[in-house]
Amino acid sequence: MPKALQPQAPTYSWADAYISDEVQQAEKRAQTALLALQHPEGYWWAELEANVTITAEYIMLLHFLGLADRGKFIRMANYLLSQQLDNGGWSIYAGDGGDLSTSVEAYLGLKLAGLRAEEPALQKARQFIQNRGGPLQSRVFTRIFLALFGQLSWRGIPTMPVEFVLMPLWTGLSIYELSSWSRATIVPLSVVMAKQPVCPLPPSQGVRELFLPGEDPCRDHQVSFKKNGLSLENLFVGLDWLLKIYQSYPYPPLRQWALREAEDWIISHQEPSGDWGGIQPAMLNAILALHCLGYSNEHDAMQRGLAALEFFTLSEGNRLWLQSCISPVWDTALSVRALAASGLTGSHPALRRACSWLLEQQIFQRGDWSLKNPYLASGGWAFEFHNSWYPDIDDSAVVLMALAEGLPDRQRHRTALARGLHWCLGMQSQNGGFAAFDTDNTKAWLNAIPFADLKALIDPPTEDVTGRVLEMLGLYGYTTDHPAAARAIAFLRRTQEPDGCWYGRWGVNYIYGTWSVLCGLAGIGEDMAQPYIRQAVAWLLAHQNDDGGWGETCESYKRPELRGQGPSTASQTAWALLGLMAAGEVQNPAVTQGINYLVRTQNARGRWDEPYFTGTGFPQHFMIRYHLYRDYFPLMALGQYLRRRGRTDRV
User: Which secondary structure element, helix H or strand E, spans residue 319, and what is its range?
Assistant: First the structure.
């Protein structure tokens, strides 16, 4: 065992004992609060909050299908209005000042829900949108919805030809070169774009008033060359023009074959529950595609799809809104880890129920990942209740850690655990890192096509997921000598930032990435005294706020110079503390100050208030507020602190 990981003999002063008593009380309150949130079936599941486009697009879908429900639309409009900023816009995360595309979609959603342009809220929104450049400056997905309702021309939408589904895997240009979330969304969306349907709106429901004076949404809306001269982006703009010429033929060659293949793909990828990919974009676009292919609203696939979307809705009072996704597996696994850190053992009824539920969620179906891994046996876990086509490495690693810490008898379930371990190891990419859903999904040039303005068409290995896989492997007895671990460590050393931190793809941001990597390196048995690790520790220490906590703004994705800076939050403080403690810094005064921050900011219910978004969907463009991050991560940090300071009690 490396020297830095040797158990430390705690030296207590009177102040330590006083602090420890407060910490134990805070831990107990947090533990009680988290236990009270468990569902009877054994899982935890709370809201996964994103931005208002998810609800606005739900209004658009129902209107497009002729399923407008006045009562439901009023409740969704109330939600949209409740989220409007004082400046008239709508945000993608707390404190961003508003986002153009989000605001355009919210505006269209409110018009479809029955609000008139003269409403004060819409007047403010219109001013915000025009000040930001108007709808023609919005992202591709927003402009697709505007084209669906005839508010601008389809010609200006970057082409994603449905014929793409015909490309075989061996070409290296198939749909399986796209990230899983892109694939599940783009296949049905390419059907919609091939059909280019229009649901005409009366002027009172349209949004032509959003366009700037003198703008023609047909003439001025086209895919244009960039000003950077000869570039990959401009090459793809030229290709887009050629594809539009191809599409202008009355019967483009291969079109009908491609539409049949896309239809088969969509139908085969629908879950029995009705879900597609477990995410709103894939589900909404699949329903739109089937509608364009002639499926009636009463068709079984449509009915199940609509029911699956309805399952994503939440309501409170006179408001109704839709979530982009739901996270029961993720929430449950992390809750188990937090409760285990706080002293509960596998014999506790809550952990028994949770671990049993997690074991039932293991996926043995061969999903899209198997196209590039034909000889790898299945055995991973997904994020959601229903997503058998897309298990992910991150969830699988966290579930395996939760089972290692929460199962009373691992030997009894050794087959399930072994299959999960084998699947995770088999998903390692050639560069040594681990991605979210696929292996070697690394063709960065795909993000240069005009359609890819979110820059999220691929799923390359990331530092945070790689760190979690290493931590999981360590819990199952793997060491740095294992070839997979050695390659993963080499990947992390290559990707470390010059100032010592690591990027966080799935959480905000460098605090998240650095926490995950430090825990992974410690878990696998890396010598935590090495200079590169001490540099990461120094980075965390240097970014502690004056109040003792840590925080980082979502803006750090756009402006890396803001890394590690932002108002303190409970979840980000917990990540920093867990990373520091993994590196052997439990006795550091900064850790005590961080623990005191958590104790001091805990509310009377044993929870923490956290308005900030600390989860990430697509960096810069789609942020997430997990409503349980403020519960299980602080509890995990408090429990780890007490254990490392010498507590031995277990329940």
Answer: strand 319-322
Ordered by start, the domain boundaries in the chain are 17-48+326-644, 51-322
Closest by CA position to 141, among listed 11, 263, 367, 324: 324
Task: Check if CATH label 3.40.630.30 holds for domain 17-48+326-644.
Answer: no
Q: What span, in angstroms and rounded, lies between the C-alpha atoms of 504 and 540?
A: 14
CB-based contacts of 536, cutoff 8 Å, min separation 6: 496, 500, 501, 502, 514, 517, 518, 579, 583
Query: What pTM does this model have?
Result: 0.93
- From 96, 99, 368, 394, the catalytic residue: 394
For residue 35, give Cα distances in angstroms to 25, 28, 48, 479, 538: 15, 10, 19, 34, 35
The CATH architecture annotation of domain 51-322 reads Alpha/alpha barrel (1.50)
Distance, in Å, from the CA atom of 392 to the CA atom of 377, rounded to the nearest integer, reads: 14
Phi and psi torsions of 624, nearest 5°: -130, 140
Burial of 476 by CB count in 10 Å (0-12 exposed, 13-18 middle, 19+ buried)?
Answer: middle
Contacts of 373 (CB under 8 A, 6+ apart): 426, 427, 439
Structure tokens at 49: 């909050």
- Residue 617 one-letter amino acid: G
584-633 pLDDT, tens digit per residue, is 999 999 999 999 999 999 999 999 999 999 999 999 999 999 999 999 99
| Nearest one of 491, 569, 568, 502 to 533, comparing CA atoms | 502
CA 570 vs CA 114, 283, 367, 607, 626: distances in Å? 40, 33, 36, 10, 12
Cα dist. 239→161, 417, 451 in Å? Answer: 11, 48, 12
224-250: pLDDT as tens digits = 656 666 667 767 677 766 777 777 777
| Within this chain, domains 17-48+326-644 and 51-322 share the same CATH topology | yes
> Alpha carbon 606 to chain centroid distance?
26
Q: How many angstroms separate the CA atoms of 483 and 342, rounded? A: 33
Query: Mind listing the pLDDT tens digit for each residue in 36-77?
Result: 999 999 999 999 999 999 999 999 999 999 999 999 999 999
Between β-strands 615-618 and 622-626, what pairing exists: parallel, antiparallel or unpaired?
A: antiparallel
| H or E element that contains 624 | strand 622-626
Q: Is 394 a catalytic residue?
A: yes
pLDDT at 377 over 60: yes
Sign of torsion over alpha carbons 579, 581, 586, 592: positive
Q: Which amino acid is at 475?
A: L
CB-based contacts of 322, cutoff 8 Å, min separation 6: 54, 55, 57, 58, 76, 280, 309, 312, 313, 314
Whether the pLDDT of residue 648 is over 80: the answer is no
Q: Are 586 and 641 in contact (CB under 8 A)?
A: yes
Q: What is the DSSP string of 272-311?
A: TTS-STTSHHHHHHHHHHHHHTT--TTSHHHHHHHHHHHH
Q: Which residue type occupies 592?
A: T
Q: Give SS3 for 616.
A: strand
The three-class DSSP label of residue 98 is coil
The amino acid at 431: N
